[in-house]
Amino acid sequence: MTSNSADREPSEGFDWSKYETELGDPEEVAGTANVVDLGAARDRRNRVGDDDQADADDVQDDFDVDAESVDGGPAALGGLVDQADDIPAEILDRQQQRQPILAEWARSGRAFRAAVRHALKDAGYVAAYHAVRTPKYVGKVLIWAPVGLVRGLGRSLHWASAEEGNWELRQAAANKGDAEVWLKLDARRQRQSRWRWWVLGAAAAATTTGAVMLTLGPTWWRYAAVAATLPVLARIGRPADKPLTDRVSHGNRYRKLTAELVRRALTSLQMPAINGPVAKDPNAISFPVEIHRDGPGHLAVVDLPYGVEATEVVARRGKLASAMRLPLDQVWPDVAPGHTGRLALWVGYEPASVMKQPTWPLLNAGQADVFKSFPFGTTPRLDAVHGTLTSRNWLIGGQPGSGKTFALRLLVLAAALDPRTEIRGYELKGVGDFARIAPVMTEYGNGFDDDTLAACFAFIEWLYEECRRRSQRIAHYAKLGKAPENKVTPELASLKGSGLHPLVAWIDEIQELMTSKYGKDAGEILEKVIKLGRALGVILLIGTQIPDKDSLPTGITRNVNTRYCLSVADQTANDMILGTSAYKNGYRATVFVPGDDNSPNDAGWGILRGFGAPGSVKSYYVNTTDAERIVQRAIAARVKAGTMPNPEEQTRDTAPVHDLLGDLARVWPDGEKAAWNETLCALLAELRPDVYTGWEAAQLTTALKPHPAVKVGDVGRRIDGKATTRRGIKHADLLAGITERDRKRPTG
Ligand SMILES: Nc1ncnc2c1ncn2[C@@H]1O[C@H](COP(=O)(O)OP(=O)(O)OP(=O)(O)O)[C@@H](O)[C@H]1O
């Protein structure tokens, strides 16, 4: 005990010796641990001064848990960890969770439409189900209606005689021979029966009148009466175990998510960390939010037993679906925000494979901005998932028919809709999936022959050189304060002639290149491009079918930051694309079944990793005809912006891209009608040092030769009061030169 008292520092926030002295001899206290005199202790506690109040509160805890005062009731769930006073007010405010005023399904147009659609679908299903069986129902009605008529008449007479009411009492009196009681009971029956005969008489009269009126009225009255009466009579006449209509069986179309179902499913996973705690206390699995409708399905947010991570359940999605007796693509467990033990289990009304995906929002209108996100796909709940291109490298992998070419093409289409973006790429399958987008591409190759592979390799080499050129340009703009963080900004990307416009480089079926003689070098260079390009506006998009280390060097897979894994055959392929341990953590694209044109199956479904938590996403479906329509819009936007590539010159400029006239206009000294060449050269070098550094007046004169409108002549100036004349150009001529050049440019 000594070590417990004397050795403890008061600095721990608790003055042990003070309280141990007050409580008496420590040995004694230990020996009588359960027999603390609560009254005396309370008195002592009350004597503690104000200054020591906090410490005294701590001591109170010790008293509250002795044997006499232990509360035998069930422990309260979810109590506060800290006293509310200890938590700053603003955090408490944030933590307050109010129940939404409107039910989940009425809170968004999407959820409301889904709920209405679901209700209408159900109603339509029920109506169609019964309509098909109408002849059978009519037959049953015709059989049971006469029985019902006889049975109904009998029941009415029986009711009117009021025999049933006290029959057993009368019988008992008769058995005993108690005439007086029997007579009293029977008199009571007669009284009851009297008014019932009246009621029955009135009903009979009403029925007769009705029948007479029916004979006098139009024919359809009689049909209507028969149609209304017969089912009622048949209902009375049918045996109790033979309903007239068949039961509309929902079978396993949809199972409403209940807490019990979720608990049963989770315990069926046979995870000791779940089953152990649940066996002791069913509340070990709890539901912080009520199970509610969410889009076209129900969402259960589940707090798993302490120590169980939601990812462990996500990894057992197949077992979970089996426990719920639902198809796999109807059960979507996910990690919920809050803490790692919180699971969001969403169960769709129907399997994702039969749900209709909305069309791509950019299909019919709109432009994209590669610096901003654009719609890429939908979740199983049909929520849109957005992707980005800038600062991204995408790796898209999957087996044949999984939908990777479509997904890659969608990214290229999005890039095409931003007129600033230069697009270059190769499809090494050779079928021309991207041919319709070729008009907006500066470079496009298609095939798996050696020439195409050589061109693709040369393109990769050029890409690396381009990255190097871009890094010099970035350094220059960083010096001018225009590239904070040494990255391409939207402003720099839009600055014509900066050479820093977004460059999308895509290669589909890259395994063809990697397994060729160019493979080793191509892999090494691409790794460098991935590392360098991110900040330089170079966006690499790669599609591959065989993601093993020969077909896709690990240097590439390690460095890409966005991964989209469509249907793959095994864990190795899964983890090659999504990263190590992805499969173990429950991100398994092996669950998707690849499709083809005739049976799409899970084509387009994949796991997207790179934007927040990984999750299942189906890329928007844009077929080739739609792609062509999008390209027409892209062409229009590019013609307007003057960024349409010239199909005749699919070259890879190693010289930095620049536009001399545009650059001169950009650096032109404010308000000056004419300027000397040497002044302009200095300004040009400042704008783009990698191009113009070292230029002299004569070089500018030569460079302007192809533009006859811009005449170089003498320009006079007064320097320190002295008239000086040097070679220079006029602003008006420059503007005329630009107009002339634009006029001659091909319009695509
Ligand atoms: N997002 C999608 N939604 C619906 N169907 C899709 C989607 N993506 C692709 N598909 C269908 O799947 C088929 C195969 O797609 P795609 O050609 O992109 O597959 P792939 O993985 O590139 O196959 P391969 O390696 O054989 O070229 C397409 O013909 C298309 O009908």
From TrEMBL:
FtsK domain sequence ranges: 382-575
Keywords, ordered alphabetically: ATP-binding, Cell cycle, Cell division, Membrane, Nucleotide-binding, Transmembrane, Transmembrane helix
Record-annotated membrane-spanning stretches: 197-214
Listed Basic and acidic residues bias regions: 1-21, 40-50
Signal peptide stretch: none
Keyword Flavoprotein in record: no
Chain sites annotated for binding ATP: G398, Q399, P400, G401, S402, G403, K404, T405
Biological processes, Gene Ontology terms: cell division
Domain of life assignment: Bacteria
Tagged with keyword Cytoplasm: no
Region (Disordered): 1-59
Protein name, per record: Cell division protein FtsK
